[in-house]
Each structure stands twice: as structure tokens, then as C-alpha cells.
Design brief:
Layout (H helix, E strand, L loop, with lengths): L1 H15 L23 E5 L8 E4 L12 E7 L3 H9 L3 E6 L2 E7 L2
Antiparallel strand pairs: 1-2, 2-3, 3-5, 4-5
Length: 107
Amino acid sequence: MNTGIKALVIALLVAGCSSTNPEERAVMGYYSPPWQSGLKAIRPYPYQNSICQEIGYNMVSRDFYDDSKLLVGCPKTEQGAIDDRVAEGGEVVGYIHHWTMIHMPRF
């Protein structure tokens, strides 16, 4: 009987940790760091703690590079960050391994 009570308590604790917010998106997937995909990450974009990265020119990113725009990469699993970049005027231009390539306007 003692084992059953412990299992019930654990189940209730785990259930209490789940979110009831329907708009909250869970990140369900793995992505490699930019360098493992052959990308040259310059800095986080748009803020220092952001998951997206400004991508520098190299042999892997050259097909997506445009001198008039900033090339930003966001992990494919981070749909919220991708949506934010598009809402800021970005345009999804392709994919490299686990990363979504986005052209951002230069200001």
C-alpha cells in the first residue's frame, strides 16, 4: 500500500508541473550547434541571449548570402523565434541541416 501512495504522490507532482496555457509551445526536437551544420555563427540575433544567430559568409551559406540583407539562422525547432523574425520583416529563404535561414532587412 505504501508503494501505491508514493506512486500517487509522484503522479500528482508531475501533473502539477504541466502548463495549462494553450498558447505555450514546447520545444520538441534536437538541433545541432551552427558549426556542426557548417555555419559560421557571428553573434546571437537580435539580442545577446537569443537562440537565433547572425550567419557569416562561407561555402555552406554562400547560396543564401545577400550583401543587402542580414542572414540569420534559427533552429528549425524554434518556430516561435522564426515567427518573430518573420514578423520583424524577415523572409525564410531555406534550410541548412537543423537551421532555418532568414533574410533580415539591414537597418
